[in-house]
Amino acid sequence: FFSPGFQVAPETKAFFFFFFFIPFVLSASLHGGELVVTYPYDYSRHPMEEKMFSPTPDEKVFKMLAKAYADAHPVISDRSELRCGGNFVKRGGIINGAEWYSFTGGMADFNYLHTNCFEVTVEVGCEKFPLEEELFTVWHENKGALLNYMEMVHRGIKGIVSDKFGNPIKNARISVRGIQHDVTTGN
Fold first, then answer.
1. Is 180's pLDDT higher than 70?
2. Which residues are part of the catalytic machinery?
């Protein structure tokens, strides 16, 4: 899945392979520097366009996941526009990644396109590199939101796809009418 000549750091490549051997269905990437939850696509379908809304076929699911985190975060859910992240208040503390800024190579896009994992990116705090004494506060601001987000794994369809003898079927394609994005069963 890596194009010839495409340079990937060894640790990034290892993480990509990890997702294939341990099939996650939900993940979050934690960043610093803002207070917002972004969701795929992070790369605009029109690379010449900056800040262009670029939804996935699962837009409604991603918005629900992002809102689950944002609504449970005490600062992101604060309606004050005068705080860090206040420019996202009218959006409910969430935004499509490419609409905020478009970039290639993000884990959320990779996971959506190449695995069964739905990932959002959480900007956990205003400081890009918080000081050690700020980490306790950042943790407590995000703890409940992380737990709420993790509980979202129980939403949707789950079960085992099996043959007529009850044996699990590996790599069975699951399609949902109206959504142009299939998932497959685990190995």
1. yes
2. 123
